[in-house]
Design a protein that fits this description.
CATH architecture of the largest domain: Up-down Bundle
Strand content: 5-15%
Number of strands: 10
InterPro entries: AAA+_ATPase, ABC1_TM_dom, ABC1_TM_sf, ABC_transporter-like_ATP-bd, ABC_transporter-like_CS, P-loop_NTPase, Type_1_exporter
Shape: elongated
Subcellular location: Cell membrane
CATH class of the largest domain: Mainly Alpha
CATH superfamily of the largest domain: ABC transporter type 1, transmembrane domain
Transmembrane segments: 20-47, 88-117, 170-188, 194-211, 282-301
Largest sheet: 6 strands, mixed
Membrane topology: Multi-pass membrane protein
Distance between the termini: 49 Å
Number of helices: 23
Radius of gyration: 37 Å
Helix content: 55-70%
Mean pLDDT: 80
GO molecular function, one term: ABC-type oligopeptide transporter activity
Structural class: alpha/beta
Strand order of the largest sheet: 6-7-8-3-9-10
Low-confidence stretches: none
């Protein structure tokens, strides 16, 4: 229930709908009870002439209110019976229809108002998870399956809606219906009502025994749901490799195993849940039969209860069954919802270790240099970078080269503050980047990665991602600098052409040039190029290299290099090996040393 309270915090902005729902549910419960009570005088007056009231009753104060109301109703019915028994019957039927109409009207209005609360909470929970996803560091998602995160924002939130939020409708209506009904039953016959009091706790105890395993099974179901969504996501994003390696059967078996496990869990879970309704109904009917036997004796043998009251009492006793059944279902829902809410709050309550410092500086301009001073960094236990130090003066290009695993891309992750250093510092103009706001730091930088990360949107929207309100002319100018306008202008819809999921309608070189255009349009003073040409063929590389040269003019650049052509004109080349600097200098200087750099050049092995 702790998670239920946390979910309810999202309902605070919609409390007006909750209040209206409560008011409507009060009237629903009231008219639900009155609709059965109205049957008593009807049966008595129509079938027992001794119950008719010929003299109009007088009101003698609050103490006699109950008798006054009953006698007034009986008097009205009696008057009509004396005039015309058919019209009296129509009058009574009209009263019953009106009471049931009002009951159902307020039932609808209660559901109408709670809809806005439920859907509002659903929207806000989803927004909160998505906002949290955007605020969490990159490191968080390197350890998580994407499918599991998708499952939390979809299936788990839906489960919360169907479980936690659905019982908001029951919290007032069903308990009030039971309270009003039992109150009426106590007035009619305290002895018979005792049986109902015995029924409710017994029913609750039996139902709780059935539902003990629901939370753990629901948690297993949500985890397995996340697993199979991950398999779907991996299959869709890697379909060429799956087909190219004839691995369809392997992936099919993995997916079928996952869905089979999910089926077994859901079979058990749903069958337990389905047991709640028939169990509560059977227990209710069992008690009704006992009431029928015991009350029948009171009417036929003892004469302590009249028949009309007993018939209405039976109706009221059965009227308790539906809300009791709904409450038993709600018990199951809470257990399932608790498991889903727990998974939601695991995301929402995750602390981000990449946060803005208190009184963080908004750095708007880059003036002097980037200084990386004696940094150590590790993803897990072993240092990826060891006592690493370089200075990148404004306007210069520094290239990082080395074999795979030497720590080159890690530098890009640290300078952009996707990760924080373990020891040492990275400074821009003498200010530690941890003392700057993340937004202002990243505003100073443009990023072009090895994988061209594009979105299922138009070319214009992809290129203008870093600059709101960019005009067509500005986008076209950025595309020209990136050598991309030559192919964009020939597309059927030009800038408004949709490039498909991850830009899959374009070639690798075209996607990379759009990535460069995006960085150009942002127009930052610092460029981070992480293996920007490593995945390209020779012709595409030539075009992209030209685009990179255009982009780097008058800018400070850190280039993580894969191919010689990318870095031979750099102001300084840093040669890395196992997280440490082994050589540094210009291209010709390093070749003259005939050492590590020359071997890399000969091998053309500047890998990522």
């Amino acid at each position: 229930m702790n998670y239920f309270k946390k979910i309810l915090q999202f309902a605070i902005p919609y409390k007006r709908f909750a209040i209206l729902n409560i008011i409507c549910n009060v009237f629903y419960a009231l008219f639900s009870t009155l609709s059965f009570l109205a049957l008593i005088p009807v049966i008595q007056i129509l079938f027992d002439k001794t119950k008719r009231v010929a003299v109009e009753p007088r009101y003698d104060g609050f103490g006699s209110l109950k008798d006054y109301v009953i006698d007034s109703f009986n008097y009205q019915v009696t008057q009509r019976v004396n005039e015309d028994e058919v019209s009296a019957l129509l009058f009574v039927c009209g009263i019953v229809v009106l009471l049931f109409f009002l009951k159902n009207l307020f039932g609808y209005l209660a559901a109408f108002f709670i809809t806005f609360l439920r859907n509002g909470v659903l929207k806000d929970v989803r927004n909160a998870i998505y906002d949290k996803i955007l605020s969490l560091p990159v490191s968080y998602f390197s350890e998580k399956r994407k499918g599991d995160t998708i499952s939390r924002i979809t299936a788990d939130v839906n489960e919360v809606q169907y479980s936690f939020l659905s019982i908001l409708e029951l919290i007032v209506r069903e308990p009030l219906t039971i309270i009003f009904t039992i109150t009426a039953m106590l007035i009619m016959s305290p002895t018979l009502t005792l049986f109902v009091f015995v029924f409710l706790p017994i029913s609750g105890f039996i139902i709780s025994l059935i539902g003990k395993k629901l939370k753990s099974q629901s948690d297993q179901a949500q985890q397995e749901n996340g697993h199979f969504l991950s398999l779907v996501e991996e299959t869709l994003s890697s379909l060429k490799i799956v087909k190219g390696f004839n691995a369809e059967d392997k992936f099919r078996d993995r997916f079928h195993d996952s869905t089979s496990r999910l089926k077994r869990i859901l079979d058990s879970l749903i069958n337990r849940q389905n047991l709640a309704s028939p169990t509560s109904e059977f227990l209710g009917i069992f008690v009704i039969v006992i009431i029928l036997w015991f009350g029948g004796n009171m009417v036929l043998v003892e004469g302590t209860l009249d028949g009309a009251t007993f018939i209405a009492f039976m109706g009221l006793a059965y009227n308790i069954l539906t809300p009791a059944k709904q409450i038993s279902k709600a018990t199951y829902s809470v257990k399932k919802g608790d498991a889903a809410a727990e998974r939601i709050f695991q995301v929402l309550e995750t602390e981000s270790n990449i946060t803005d410092a208190e009184n963080a500086v908004k750095k708007e301009h880059f003036e002097e240099a980037i200084e990386i001073e004696n940094i150590n960094f590790r993803y897990e236990d072993e240092n990826v970078l060891k006592n690493f130090s370089i200075t990148v003066p404004k306007g210069s290009t520094v290239a990082l080269v080395g074999q795979s695993g030497s720590g080159k891309s890690t530098i890009a992750n640290l300078v952009t503050r996707f990760y924080d250093v373990n020891e040492g510092s990275i400074k821009i103009d003498g200010i530690d980047i941890r003392q700057m706001t993340k937004k202002s730091l990243r505003n100073l930088m443009g990023l072009v990665t090895q994988d061209s990360i594009l979105f299922n949107d138009t070319i214009k929207n992809n290129v203008s991602l870093g600059k709101d309100g960019a005009s067509d002319d500005e986008v076209i100018e950025a595309l020209k600098i990136a050598n991309a306008w030559e192919f964009v202008k020939d597309l059927p819809q030009g800038l408004d052409t949709n490039i498909g999921d991850s830009g899959n309608k374009l070639s690798g070189g075209q996607k990379q040039r759009l990535s460069i255009a995006r960085a150009v349009l942002k127009n930052p003073p610092i460029m981070i190029l992480d293996e920007a040409t490593s995945a390209l063929d020779t012709e595409s590389e030539r075009l992209v290299q030209k685009a990179l040269e255009n982009m780097m003019k008058n800018r400070t650049s850190i280039v993580i290099a894969h191919r010689l052509s990318t870095i031979q004109n750099a102001d300084k080349i840093i040669v890395m090996q196992k997280g440490e600097i082994v050589e540094q200098g210009k291209h010709e200087e390093l070749l003259a040393k005939r050492s590590v750099y020359q071997k890399l050049v000969e091998m053309q092995s500047f890998e990522s």
